[in-house]
Amino acid sequence: MQSVYSKFRFYLLVICSLLLCASSYAGVSTAAASSQNVTFTDVAGEYYHFLALDDKGNVWGWGNNIAGQLGEGNSGYHAVPVRIKGFENVKLIDAGYDHSTVVKQDGTVWVWSAGDSQPREVNGITEVIDIADSAYYTLALRKDGTVWGWGRNTVGQLGNSQNGDNVALPVQVQSLSKVTAISASFEESFAVTSDGQVWRWGAVFKCSGTTCKKEIEKTPVRFEGLSGVKSLSDGIALLQDGTVVKWGINYLGSLGTGTMDFGYFPNPTPLSALTDIVQVSKTRAVTKDGHVWSWGPNTYGQVGDGTTETRPSPIILSKIDNVAAITSGEEVTVALTRDGKLYEWGNNDNGQISSESAYVMPPTPVPMARQVVNYALPIPWHPNDWTYAWTYLDDKGSVVKDSQTYYRTKPFSEGFAAVHRAYDNLWAFITVNGEPAFSGKYTVVKDFHQGRAAVKDQKGWQFINTKGEFIGQNRYLNADNFANGLAPVLVGQKWGYIDLSGKMVIAPQFSSAKSFSNGQAAVKVNGKWGFIDAKGKVAIKAAYTTVGDFTGQVAAVSQNGKWGYLNKTGAWVIKPQYEDAKAFSNTLLAPVKIKGKWGYINLEGKVAVSPQYEDAVPFQEGLASVKKNGFWAIINSSGRLVTSFNFVEVRPYANKFAWVATATDNGYIDSTGKWYYKAKIVQLP
């Protein structure tokens, strides 16, 4: 055993994992939803997305789509296979890190990759009979036994006697002929010739004694000690007699010999337990009777035994048989059975495999239609010990797991919710079933009100309707929500109001403006606040330092350092006398500050809940939060405590639930103060 630290492998795993967890769910196409009876004939994928070929020559893909390699634009993660547009009449498939490659029946090669708006043919090569995708380059075997390559060539992995820049068009691998099989690992390429010998080039480990290091081989060299080979995968060879040999980095038992010693093992080592093997993929092997041997790293359950226990020696999987082919991704393994069905197992921390709560899944049928879930309440959560994300609870209070990862999720409003997608750092809208509502993506968004939502892109603020269509052509420096059919917008340094069609109906003239509430909107003129009606006429003259909105028939306003309440005619209902004041609610109570403490008054100005709190918020749904000694509690409209003072954060009730957080837990409580959903607050490294 030669000890060497494999930095390139480690960094690849870290980078790929980060990008996977930055993916989000993309809606299932009509083709996917109607694909229940598809029969598959091949499967491929060794990174974070997978391809499957059906018996009609169509290609289906699922998994990571951050580069658009599934033909759906850069739309995040697909948990359900979608038929890839433009990949028809296909006979061979393979998948790199950010691209998908196929060979059509006529021997031409086609690819979907980053920046492609449609599949493109790889020019300069025909009569291809085998294809091998690495992360960032591709090898092709032609009918005449020659090998060609294109893509990344930093360490000579294309075998054309050069290394350096990427190569756009296929170049022939030098000094190779009569090739029968090919394989492409991350930086090293392999070919099997008709005599069973193996050739390698690219970043090749060379060992002297106990020291190993990578050397660049720009043209193929013999793989000494390896012969009688039928086919290859990453660090594993299937021999012509049905046995298997393994070499390379022994990471968490990936060598399969029973040892956990980390290092590079250059000599092909027989795995004596494996016989009658017909196909290999990294640390998996399929027998001729359809059983699967599996071993190695099992952090995500990718071995397939339903555990996360490392397996340094091969084991037979008991929960799947009748397997025809297998492919090993970084965190998920996929198998094709002889009846044309797909199974997968491994990492399910974010619902990549199933909506079940389990973080690791045993062999599970690949879903061919997305399970319908009613999304309800946004929550922060931690799909693993190093990722902070947001998702939703469904209408039954269970955490939604559908392979999406969001930096933030917002509550639903008028059937839509804004979500901050991790994979492109932009906001979009989803429906109550979690489907993308439309294709728009924005840097900042506000909720839907009256069928319109204010959104911001690089050109400024605009409004969209429920189809994602822009309302009018104008862009604004700022904008707020629609109410009473009008929305405030900032043009230059002045605010005006537009109607639902986008037409300016109240000319920009205010230094600040708020949304309408109960028929009036607060506007600022010459440093003072007043109110206008829906026609833009002055309803209450601008004479106040600060104002709130009209909730019901009164609004809190500040004048000469004191707060009181006005009605819609501008008459005092409760004269200025409070240090601070907030809005009335449907309980007809409002929080006010008296002698440094908060309490509640009624519309007659009488104290209903005595001033005793450090802070207090307006009632919502008959309940309000109050603060004492640094902690929050919930009270009812009689001032009685519904909960004790043990919350560090409380948000107003909405649809019978309130978001709360203690020092150790967060979640939702119901109107009785009982936990509806509760989760530990995780301190991330």
What does this entry look like structurally?
The protein has 685 residues and is mostly beta strands. Among the domains are: 239-276 and 291-369, no CATH class; 372-438, no CATH class; 586-685, Lipocalin (Beta Barrel), CATH 2.40.128. Helix content is 3%, strand content 49%. A four-stranded antiparallel beta sheet has the order 1-2-3-4. The longest helix has 15 residues, at 7-21. The radius of gyration is 32 Å and the shape is elongated.
List key phrases describing it.
single chain; 685 residues; mainly beta; Lipocalin; 4-stranded antiparallel beta sheet
Number of helices: 2
* pLDDT averaged over residues: 91
DSSP helix fraction: under 10%
CA-atom Rg in angstroms: 32 Å
Strand order of the largest sheet: 1-2-3-4
Query: Structural class of the helix and strand makeup?
Result: mainly beta
Largest sheet geometry: 4 strands, antiparallel
Distance between the termini: 35 Å
Low-confidence stretches: 1-35
Number of strands: 59
Large-scale geometry: elongated
Beta-strand content:
over 45%
